[in-house]
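Posting this for the archive.
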Amino acid sequence: MGVGGRDVSMSLDGVRDKNLMQLKKLNTVLFPVRYNDKYYADALASGEFTKLAYYSDICVGSIACRLEKKEGGGIRVYIMTLGVLAPYRGLGVGTKLLSHVLDLCAKQNIGEIYLHVQTNNEDAINFYKKFGFEITETIQNYYTNISPPDCFVVTKFITQSQTKK
């Protein structure tokens, strides 16, 4: 149920040249950093791993990932950004976005997914921990022009038993 007892539809849509500006606008509102052209090229190149979230046909969130080759073969997923506009938090939008990417990892036998989280972002850290992510590293002075400048590397290792559904 949505606002006022009405059923509300939530959907995900792929990011492509035609709707890339929506991702750029969301990022401007959601994050304290500006993303360069490489970010957007990586987001487009990741295909199904980058999605926009719509709540009652309003674009309210996104997840943007980059696929990375691991040393010795294999692929891992880096979550460049995951964000939901403040009025729509707590409605399952972020969960739907992250679950979509985790399901893709399972289907494609990708065993590692990770991201950077600012050390004071307790809401994000707790959100990812609910999905089995763990803090695996701390990087000092990772960010420039925001305080604190430090980040955690938050990682989920997906074992074969988790990928077989």
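The chain is about 30% helix and 30% strand. The mean pLDDT is 91.
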